[in-house]
Amino acid sequence: TTQVINCKAAIAWEAGKPFSVEEIEVAPPKEHEIRVKIVATGLCRTDAHAMNPCFKEGLFPVILGHEGAGIVESVGPGVTKFKPGDKVIPLYMPQCGQCKFCLSPKTNLCDKISKVKTPISDQDLMLDGTSSTFSEYTVVGENSLAKIDAAAPLDKVCLIGCGFSTGYGAAINTAKVEPGSSCAVFGLGGVGLSAVMGCKAAGASRIFGIDINKDKFALAKELGATDCLNPLDFQKPIHKVINEMTNGGVDCPIECIGTIDTMKAALDCTTVDWGTCAIVGAAVGGQAFPVSPMQLIMGRKINATFFGGHVECVPKLVLDYMAFNLLQEGKSNQTVLVFKGSA
Ligand SMILES: NC(=O)c1ccc[n+]([C@@H]2O[C@H](COP(=O)([O-])OP(=O)(O)OC[C@H]3O[C@@H](n4cnc5c(N)ncnc54)[C@H](O)[C@@H]3O)[C@@H](O)[C@H]2O)c1
Ligand SMILES: *[C@@H]1O[C@H](CO)[C@@H](O)[C@H](O)[C@H]1NC(C)=O
Ligand SMILES: *[C@@H]1O[C@H](CO)[C@@H](O)[C@H](O)[C@H]1NC(C)=O
Ligand SMILES: [Zn+2]
Ligand SMILES: [Zn+2]
Fold it and tell me: Where would I find the Alcohol dehydrogenase-like C-terminal domain in this sequence (predicted)?
């Protein structure tokens, strides 16, 4: 199995143009590399950012995709942690294990991530630039792969590769939701719904779900949202509506959309004195996010996250997710599956 493999992949030739599915050659794994057969992959909004014509930083052509799960097909020389047949999730956050950041339990950011030019484009997130998940086979470095439970359903746990981990972690690690907290999740896509799950798991007593697409509300409520609001239904700005409903704002707004306006709205409904506004959405185009010093002086905090702030815990999240899924099954049909199709 150390031959070149010919397979299909979705190639992005330039910004703003649709993918084209073409045959590619996937080289055998070199030293400390692993070739993975991708079984399932989600479609994260960040992949669509790279397709936005405003997104100038991308290196094209590129095979995108960073939310996959698969099975090890073959391993290169020197690989000891993986063998063919292992179930794995590729990590877009490298963990070199040696830099000062990897050695610190305070962060999940590896020094190698700061060496990549554009952290929201996928093509360079895995270090050698050869790996992506919108392909039937992909090659990744051994530090960019997590071995997961053999019983894990790959079509579901692929979401742990990005959306689930990011949203769930944003609630737990970034906003630090506590029992009894009030929360407001802006955007109920894959990331936002996972943030709702994180708020619920952390014991929040009130969880606002905000989206301009009301079709998201049923699932958000099933996952724990207590109040779903569509900004288009109100004359006044949504932060004012929330401030009135909560007598001054919520403890933990979590922005999972990625526009400057919704980030501002999230900060504007953060309660004074102790609120933490968590920024998860990635805005395209390098615009600034305006913050008045007075908002901070009054005790509001802003925190942001990359991949939910998790430190080396993809295998554990898979186990948590499997346990959570079992809990959900009693109430609904595979709730967690519904929010993202696999491509
Ligand atoms: N920080 C990280 O590590 C990280 C990781 C993954 C994704 N992201 C970012 O998180 C964001 C969400 O990703 P996703 O995959 O869930 O996206 P998504 O497109 O699936 O979901 C976005 C949701 O926001 C809603 N929405 C859009 N504009 C709105 C508005 N003005 N007001 C209210 N609702 C609005 C949409 O209807 C949709 O339901 C993206 O910006 C993505 O790039 C960041
Ligand atoms: C900010 O969020 C990160 C995770 O995204 C977390 O590790 C860190 O502790 C948070 N900082 C504060 C001050 O809460
Ligand atoms: C749940 O699953 C059952 C059996 O597969 C199906 O009949 C039903 O329509 C599903 N309900 C929803 C809400 O999808
Ligand atoms: Zn993503
Ligand atoms: Zn490192």
Answer: 190-318
